[in-house]
């Protein structure tokens, strides 16, 4: 008997690899028996998926030269279909469509380009017969039968299973997505040497400990009305509106219970903060097997936490990427890009079919991300998963669109809101100006928020010049990562309500969410009613109003505020201006919720660019055929990437030695340096980078510095200082965010 290999480094036979799949299959079945999958068919595709690797060309590639393989190598999944026991499946009563699903799941368990002829495929299948006689695997039993001819009714290389318009087509598509997606998950886990799923048998106990800790400080402590509601509705899709500071994180976890869950938030900084909170205060042991963090900088975040936990960072990273952890905190793009149904999307939707998804801060999403979210939730609902939307303010259009897309959910009659009043607002009918702000700086902490970077820089330089020697600072998105992080730490420190330091921070919308800060006075340009209430949350965050006015909103007067018409929707701005001018003065939390619902109702938004983009995006995504796009294309579309990561020329000059040392490490081969060391070098290199919008990048000059065949970094010719960030040499352009 020949020893047929599935992979060469480290060496593993097809039988050994399949044994590992079957272990993970059993694990998945034990932990999630209620998944809507035919367990026999899932076991069958696990057994058969790699048998096509017996072909001589593949064996030669992995170092087994049994004889001359001829012609072009056919992807092994397309050859494994020769072993599907279709006559047995027919006898067992499976329908033609169900048997098709088995063939497709096996053939396409790796998405490979179909670039071979049907005649070459048929020849290779015939050649497999000889290998089959030399292959012995006791676990196959009667579950495999070789056939040199595949019935076209069941499979041919160009065939696909599409979503279709009929109920029967949709049902077949669902079966295919679940079968292929779970095969992928099991296969990835077996190849990565990890468990396909780790059990959530700890969360409710952790929550009880958390409550006991609250009671130790205050014997009267108990879960509040929001948290109790969430616990009582663990089996429902729910949409709840709850004021900031009501314990939404705990509420979300109580709804999740001892189930597999994903916690999604709009911004990386917010995700890092929630991860920190959960791993420090709630799930305090074995975190590397329980709670993961998934965004574009996961590895660098794990490096920061490496010292705090018993963890093998590479294994933890693999578990996180493979979605094996019980709880994953992530950005929308890591999860919801499956709505494009790109080639290879199935494992995400299959996982979500037995998971619960918590969507926090829905009011922060742009029109395109909101469209993906609505579509994603409709799939999750159809496939058997559960979701919960928790938000401080709920745009009315969201519930309308969920209902329109056939999504089932419950909504409590009451809003979870305290009677405490935190804000009193004065509308100022001019553009934002430093002259107005100056008299208010008196032994206090002031936050100024502008819509654009250029406006923030202007206000900052005027205040800095006027209050020489005082603590005046600037934060926006165009500082290199290292400086931005230092500024975030500094504003966080200055923004604690017990801080006695007097200071002014001038910022852009980078502080709207994620930063848990509490200033004494807020001066802000109007963007829209929703953004304004986010900004208000950075002032008197957790304290009752004890002054006449603590928020001043500049509405532009006869003009519009900066950024309006470029990235702030003009109609929404005008509507917001009207609504807010009717409600100046004291604003209760309930009133804020009401105004957002009104300002963002379907009626109020109709005709706005936001509304048109939202509806167009939903229709645009629905119009794609499944598998039409590849993953890289979807990633660009989904993240709406219209910026370039660069290292400013000045930063490069000042840090050339350090930057070159990282280049040197990244040029080494995997024999010379570990993956972890390379990841650390990449993380450190990223500290010198900043994201520059396309329009600005085109005005400057970028020089591509090659690191190796796969990686390069752009040196951007521009001015830079850690005080004001990037600036163009000729003239200062209007920069957003």
From TrEMBL:
CDD domains noted in UniProt: Cas3''_I
Lineage top rank: taxon: Bacteria
Pfam families per the UniProt record, alphabetical: Cas3-like_C_2, Cas3_HD, DEAD
PROSITE patterns found in the cross-reference section: HD_CAS3
Keywords noted in UniProt: Antiviral defense, ATP-binding, Helicase, Hydrolase, Metal-binding, Nuclease, Nucleotide-binding
Molecular functions (GO terms): ATP binding; hydrolase activity; metal ion binding; nuclease activity; RNA binding; RNA helicase activity
Coiled coil: none
Matching InterPro entries: Cas3-like_dom, CRISPR-assoc_Cas3_HD, CRISPR-assoc_Cas3_HD_sf, DEAD/DEAH_box_helicase_dom, DEAD_box_RNA_helicases, Helicase_ATP-bd, Helicase_C-like, Helicase_Cas3_CRISPR-ass_core
Residue intervals of the HD Cas3-type domain: 7-189
Any single GO BP term: defense response to virus
Family: In the central section; belongs to the CRISPR-associated helicase Cas3 family.
PANTHER family (alphabetical): CRISPR-ASSOCIATED ENDONUCLEASE_HELICASE CAS3, DEAD-BOX ATP-DEPENDENT RNA HELICASE 47, MITOCHONDRIAL
Name listed for the protein in its UniProt record: CRISPR-associated helicase Cas3
């Amino acid at each position: 008997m020949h020893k047929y290999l599935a992979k060469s480094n480290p060496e593993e036979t097809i039988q050994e690899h399949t044994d590992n799949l079957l272990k993970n299959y059993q694990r998945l079945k034990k932990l999630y028996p209620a998944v809507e999958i035919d367990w026999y068919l899932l076991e069958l595709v696990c057994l058969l998926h790699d048998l096509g690797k017996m072909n001589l060309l593949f064996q030669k590639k992995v170092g087994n030269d049994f004889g001359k393989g001829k012609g072009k190598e056919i992807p092994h999944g397309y050859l494994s279909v020769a072993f599907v026991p279709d006559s047995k499946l027919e006898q067992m009563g499976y329908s033609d469509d169900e048997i098709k699903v088995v063939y497709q799941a096996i053939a396409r368990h790796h998405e490979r380009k179909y670039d071979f002829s049907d005649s070459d495929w048929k020849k290779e299948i015939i050649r497999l017969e000889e290998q089959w006689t030399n292959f012995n695997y006791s676990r196959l039993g009667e579950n495999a039968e070789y056939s040199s001819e595949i019935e076209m009714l069941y499979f041919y290389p160009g065939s696909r299973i599409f979503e279709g318009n009929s109920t029967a087509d949709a049902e077949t598509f669902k079966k295919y997505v679940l079968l292929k997606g779970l095969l992928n998950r099991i296969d990835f886990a077996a190849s990565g040497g990890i468990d396909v799923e780790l059990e959530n048998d700890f969360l409710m106990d952790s929550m009880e400990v958390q409550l006991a800790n609250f009671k130790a400080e205050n014997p009267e402590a108990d879960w509040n009305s929001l948290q109790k509601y969430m616990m009582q509705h663990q089996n429902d899709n729910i949409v709840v509106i709850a004021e900031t500071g009501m314990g939404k994180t705990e509420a979300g976890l109580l709804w999740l219970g001892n189930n597999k869950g994903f916690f999604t938030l709009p911004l990386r900084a917010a995700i890092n903060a929630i991860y920190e909170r959960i791993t420090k205060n709630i799930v305090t042991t074995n975190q590397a097997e329980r709670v993961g963090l998934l965004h574009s900088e996961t590895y660098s975040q794990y490096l920061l936490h490496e010292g705090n936990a018993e963890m093998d960072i590479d294994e933890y990273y693999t578990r996180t990427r493979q979605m094996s952890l019980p709880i994953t905190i992530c950005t929308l793009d890591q999860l919801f890009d499956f709505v494009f149904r790109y080639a290879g999307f199935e494992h995400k939707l299959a996982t979500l079919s037995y998971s619960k998804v918590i969507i926090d801060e829905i009011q922060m999403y742009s029109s395109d991300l909101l469209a993906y979210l609505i579509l994603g939730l409709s799939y999750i609902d159809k496939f058997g998963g559960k979701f919960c939307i928790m938000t401080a303010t709920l745009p009315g259009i969201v519930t309308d669109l969920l209902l329109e897309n056939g999504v089932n959910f419950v909504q409590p009659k009451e809003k979870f809101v305290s009677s405490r009043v935190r804000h009193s607002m004065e509308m100022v009918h001019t553009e934002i100006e430093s002259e107005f702000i100056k008299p208010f700086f008196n032994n206090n902490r002031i936050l100024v928020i502008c819509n654009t970077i250029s406006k923030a820089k202007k206000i900052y330089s005027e205040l800095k010049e006027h209050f020489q020697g005082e603590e005046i600072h600037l934060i926006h998105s165009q500082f290199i990562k290292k400086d931005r992080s230092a500024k975030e730490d500094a504003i966080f420190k200055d923004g604690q309500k017990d801080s006695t330091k007097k200071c002014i921070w001038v910022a852009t919308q980078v502080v709207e969410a994620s930063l848990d800060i509490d200033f004494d006075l807020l001066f802000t340009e109007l963007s829209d009613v929703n953004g304004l209430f986010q900004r208000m949350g950075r002032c008197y965050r957790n304290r009752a109003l004890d002054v006449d006015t603590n928020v001043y909103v500049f509405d532009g007067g006869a003009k519009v505020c900066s950024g309006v018409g470029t990235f702030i929707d003009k109609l929404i701005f005008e509507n917001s201006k009207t609504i807010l001018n009717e409600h100046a003065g004291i604003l209760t939390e309930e009133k804020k919720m009401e105004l957002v619902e009104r300002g963002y109702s379907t009626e109020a938004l109709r005709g706005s660019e936001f509304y048109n983009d939202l509806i167009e995006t939903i229709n645009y995504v629905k119009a794609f055929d499944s598998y039409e796009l590849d993953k890289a294309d979807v990633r660009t579309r989904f993240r709406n990437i219209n910026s370039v990561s660069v290292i400013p020329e000045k930063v490069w000059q000042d840090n050339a030695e350090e930057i070159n040392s990282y280049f040197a490490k990244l040029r080494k081969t995997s024999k010379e340096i570990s993956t972890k060391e390379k990841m650390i070098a990449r993380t450190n290199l990223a500290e010198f980078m900043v994201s520059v919008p396309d329009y600005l990048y085109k005005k400057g000059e970028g020089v591509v510095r090659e690191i190796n065949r796969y990686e390069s970094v752009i040196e951007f010719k521009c001015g830079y200082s850690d005080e004001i960030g990037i600036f163009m040499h000729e003239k200062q352009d209007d920069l957003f965010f």
